[in-house]
Amino acid sequence: MQLDAVQMLLEPRDGLPPVVEDAEALAKAVQRLRTGTGPIAIDAERASGYRYGQRAYLVQLRRAGGGTVVVDPIACPDLTALGELLKEPEWVVHAASQDLACLADIGLSPSLLFDTELAGRLLGYPRVALGTLVEEVLGYRLEKGHAAADWSTRPLPNDWIRYAALDVELLVELRDALEIRLRDAGKRGWAAEEFAALVAAPSPARREEPWRRTSGLHRVRKPRQLAVVRELWLTRDRIAERRDLAPGRVLPDAAIVEAALALPDTADELANVPGFGGRSTKRHVGTWFKAVEAGRAAQHLPPVARPGTGPPPPRSWASRDAAAAARLAASREAVLAIAEQHRVPAENLLSPDVVRRLAWEPPAVITEETVGAALRATGARTWQVALTAPALVATLLAEPAPGV
After folding, report:
1. Average pLDDT estimate for 224-240
2. Percent of the chain beyond pLDDT 90?
3. CA dihedral 93, 148, 79, 169 (to 10 degrees)
4. Mean pLDDT, to the nearest integer, of 373-383?
5. Among the three residues 160, 175, 200, which one is the final residue of a domain in this structure?
6. pTM score, two decimals?
7. Do residues 351 and 376 lie in contact, with contact meaning Cβ atoms separated by under 8 Å?
8. What are the backbone angles phi and psi of residue 11, rounded to the nearest 5°?
9. Which of 147, 225, 326, 329 could form a disulfide with 404 if both were Cys (CB 3.0 to 4.6 A apart)?
């Protein structure tokens, strides 16, 4: 669509919706949505970077005939009636993987789903942000700008409420337009499998050793230093949870890494480590130094390299198993060629992890059936197996090039 045909959408078409903040208003909102028809657009706003965890601080819904509803789940903690209503109709969500977990935490889970971002990926759109897709597919430019706001703020400014309402304003229309394009491209079945997988996906398991996700941890190469990272991370996490603050606001990752590298002998030395000179951090330097001491005295030292359950990092394959490295290179090329042919991102055609596992440990007997079974065992969907298994069989059976 040409730029001069794009229309700015600055306000919800029905006006700015009031925020539902009590049981009576919630009951009326649920009834309004119940009288509507068709799919329900749904979105959630979190306070990432401000508050501890990924809690939903606002939920927006829109349905034809029911209008837009904006719910404060903090003021309305009992969303049982809304959850019951939402069990039957199809949800329309943009980037469902980002919102489904926080919505499930407040009792809202779908039985049927349409993810507009994922639909855009399957259709080969190079950019799949909501605003971009709405503009390209529907010809409207949304008012954006508050995505990174602190949504735990109360009362919410009207500008923020307007932004949140616009996120669901055109979501159902976008869904309908994308569905037509999926059908025209012969990809509606692909999308249905992907959406069903999102609905059926289990809740994310709690990570083992979550402290290993500390940014900059690659700089820490000694077990004793890693123990200090662990103790500082765990101390920070307890404080952040108690104060309901994002952990990075309590103590930055960079400060944890610098302290582990420095291994200070006293609290005064720790206070001079980069990241510990701020007013709040300096005031609690004694608490942080106790964590450093606990790490230095720990009997159980974490290994530098955590044992993995899957294949080793691909960069080490050439030296460890040259044949596997050759299979991986050929498999990646095959998947990329199929992805380009069907105008779908390679990572959506077949997960890189699935390709790695197959290349590292292929079936003993290579056939379409055994390769297909191996792909399905690691999470591939039927449409992905149908497109990729024949080519992957050929790559696995091919002789490696001379010198590989």
Report:
1. 97
2. 87
3. -40
4. 96
5. 200
6. 0.91
7. no
8. -135, 145
9. 326
By CB atoms closer than 10 A (0-12, 13-18, 19+), residue 73 is buried
Give the mean pLDDT of 90-118.
Answer: 97
pLDDT for 2: 44
Strand 91-93 with 37-46, pairing: parallel
d(CA 48, CA 128): 21
Are both 283 and 351 inside the same structural domain? no
Contacts of 102 (CB under 8 A, 6+ apart): 44, 46, 54, 55, 56
Tokens of 100: 């489904």
Take residue 150 and report the two structure tokens written for it: 């602190």
Pairing assessment for the beta strands 113-115 and 91-93 based on DSSP bridges: parallel
Amino acid 182: pLDDT: 98
Question: For residue 219, what are the CA distances in angstroms to 222, 229, 260, 389?
Answer: 9, 11, 10, 40
Residue 374 is assigned to a structural domain of this protein: yes
**Cα atoms in the 13 Å half-sphere on the side-chain side of 313:** 5
217 and 181 housed in the same domain? no
| Burial classification of residue 326, based on how many CB atoms lie within 10 Å of its CB (0-12 exposed, 13-18 middle, 19 or more buried) | buried
Helix H or strand E segment including 63: strand 56-64
DSSP summary character for residue 86:
T
247, 272, 297 - which closes a domain: 297
Residue 376 neighbours by CB distance under 10 Å: 15
Q: How far apart are CA 163 and CA 229, in angstroms?
A: 39
Cis peptide bond upstream of 247, omega within 30: no
